[in-house]
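Researcher: Before we compare anything, I want clean individual predictions. No alignment, no superposition, just each chain on its own. First chain goes here; please echo the sequence and then give the structure tokens.
Model: Echoing the first chain and its structure:
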Amino acid sequence: MIAFLDWLNGILWGVPLIALMIITGLYFTIRSGFFQFRHFGWILKHTVGTLAQKDTKVTDDKKVISPFEAICTAVGGTVGFGNIAGVATAVASGGPGAVLWMWLTSFLGLILKQVEVTLGCYYRETNDNGEKFGGPTYYMQKGLGEQRHWGNKWKILAMIFGIGIFSTFFITSSNLTASEVVAGAFNFNGITVFGYFIDGRIVVGALLCLATYIITAGGTKGVASIFSKLVPFMSIAYIIMGILMIIVNINAVPNAFSMIFTNAFTGTAAVGGFAGAAVSKIIQTGMARSVYSNEAGWGTSPMIHSSADTPHPIEQGLWGSFEVFFDTFIVCSITALSVILSGTWTDGATGGALALSAFNQSFGTIGSILLAIIMVIFTITTSGGWFTYYLAILEHINMKKTRFSELLIKSFYAVRSLPGLLWTIYLVHAQNTGFIWTVVDITSAIPTFVNVFVILLLSNEYFRLLKDYKARYMGIGEVDDNTVLFYEDKKVED
């Protein structure tokens, strides 16, 4: 079974998907006039630069969320599991060279995330309660089904995408990753209940499951409100730890960067518990981890960004670009450098255990404890962020309010945090926690393939909106007063 999954992962993350992402990323980059590079300062100014304005941080409207709440929820869905455990695993399996390919992929991810978030906002829909939902399935229905006259053929792509996304609901390692870190940091082996020994990782996993269940009780708006307070604080805490790690190992920094750039094109020889990696493996690992860490092209972030109160789809798309920048070039880089500088990447450990080992190497027990606390918070935010993604898809299914769709949503709410715990129990008892990363890569490849293909088909809508945004807000070109900024408004006019 494991051999088959490894083979399937190699196929999915082989030439077709890699080529599709590179070609699509270059297409949007070139046709937009290298927007993510030429106007990077504008992106920062109109995202993180607006946070001093009170009205951009939160909104009292219970039916929508602010752009800041949207970015916090989206970042919360990636930072921790993907950016800490995932990147650590990338270095452990592909070597330091994987980091360079992760960075290069993310340069294209800056524009890909902007495009998908923009389309998500443009094609979003307001339900009977006044709540806004959007995402890939919405722009498949409206962009392909209605505008391009695909009829019901869009449902085929939507079904494949939905299966890929929901496979992460049933197969996830975020709970296991945090449980390993916490149990390891506090040397918690387990407890005995009625003569039956329960592994410490399972106990911690159960507590995380309960915490996630509680924090998601308020739906998308409730999650976004909580995350707007949690995510910035914990992100800053992790960044400070990373900076201290670099300072402590400052003499080794030049060699770390040398390995990143050299190994990316030459491969990495076996050393210690590291099995070595060919260039093809390094590229595959770097790109896969890039997608999984910042989720550019995956189609997840549009599902939360589409609920944001924004005057223009491109304006929210800028937050998508900032999300990739923050996720990859700051948080992921800190994780990668920490693991490389510590020298622990050759020990054979992966995931959260490797990250824990790296910080323990430099800071001792206090480093392990601080990372454990951060991982607990970010595991909850990861689960909470993905909760909003699943809910967006389910709300789309529930548009016609059938008995089945309503039962589906109720069932989802009832078991929303349980699969993570069940996987933790299974993997601990099976004593095989490593192969989960292969499964994780597979679950990310399927929806990414579909979503990138779809945004390529709908590229003209993005460029129409980009042209309008540049004219309205950047003084580039002339404003066309007839431009419709949201698809819902266009349907009303028709």
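Researcher: Okay. Second chain, same rules.
Model: Second chain and its structure:
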Amino acid sequence: MTTGNFREQEWPANVDLVVVGGGTAGIVAAKTAAGLGTSVVLIERERTGGDCLWTGCVPSKALIAAASAAAATRSAHRFGVDVGPTRVDFPRVMAHVHGSIDRIAPIDSPEALTAAGVTVVYGDAVFTAPNTVTVCSRPLHFALAVITTGARPTVPSITGLASVDYLTSDTLWDLASLPERLLVIGAGNIGCEMAQAFARLGSEVPLVGRASTILPKEDASASAVLSNALREDGVKVSTSTTVVEIDARSALTDSGRRIQFDQVLVATGRTPRTDSLGLDAAGVAVDERGYVVVNDRLATSNPRIWAAGDLTGHPQFTHTAGMHGSLASSNAVLGLRRSIDKTGTPRVTFTDPEIASAGIDVRAARRIPSLRVQTMRHDEVDRAVTEGRTDGFTTLVLDGKHRIVGANVVGPRAGETIGELVLAVKHGLRTRDLAGATHPYPTYNDGPWNAAIADVRAQLHSPVAARAIGTVAKLRRRWVRRQNARQDRAR
């Protein structure tokens, strides 16, 4: 946790590199630069660690773990295990959530940054010139800078919403009691994760999304599997629906339906934190949505300044922010021209089942004639059968040379399974490469493995391959017969 001495700390008037924002991208950028021998000042307005630690990845996954435990007890009878009624103690659940944060926080603490050679400064940073940022009314001149202020929850324009004590992913973690009825507005990954978690913990959860499917960025087949799973957990899923008005206890949709609630969670996307930074004075261009405009090397319109993380408009994931923070910082400090990875950012929705993707999107692949998809249903994956989790699947996106250029996995631990497929996409591996690597059995990794094997077998059964194999086999048989005849004569 932040201590007072850091907030009272002095800092130099001139510095080699200033990092504005102490989230994942900023911390990685600052540590990278300091490790290269550069003097670094990191400016953070609130607390180091960013959304991932305090309001995003860490607390949400801790809550999901508790919700999964509750769901497991309710479904234990499927395996012949009978348990008593499940009782959720929500304060203890939240204690687990905050305990998880506390255990991880030291990694991103100001103390850890200081130990790495970074000077941490607290306050609101405002650029006042192309080479100057002001914090706590004091100017700080820099040779180079990296902006990493991230994004905040987007609050839609809904009549009456401002008069309601609504929740966002920032404030959700202050809940002291489990809502009896939690309305979730937004059916993206955050909305779906939280809807399922709170339903499993015992809340009545209506989930409302504007798109025709939940998780509109995913292929319809993946969305359909999750939609069924959410409904089985008690979530009341409404798609193609917009909330148009809210009062203290109910929401009105565009179809005229009233939805009652005790709490409402707004999960309708995120907005970059750039409006108060004085970027005009710094000569840093932003687009119409407020995202900092960067090139493939994460450089901005000001040759002194780079940007990384959620405010760039790139996929808003912690792993993206970390990779980009390192790239921006090393490009700035060393004058490198490294570009961001173009093979496709992996993404995971941590629902049950999980949905994970990498490389070329399956939806795009279906529209490109040169690409095709190879799908393995998980009712053919033995581990899924043993656990009664056969509703998922693995899809590989393949090019004309049978290289794996994309993947989509739906099922338990899909976020773990996608790891080897990320490597396959990045390094241009073919299905025969994946099929030729021995995988442990029985695991959910059998999904990608068997999908690759199926593709290799299909190649072997093509007319050309079949003729070639038949010819080789025929020649081999003749050679064996001749060898056997010689051995018989020699006896």
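Researcher: What stands out in the second chain?
Model: The first strand starts at residue 14 and ends at 20. Additionally, The first helix runs from residue 4 to 7.
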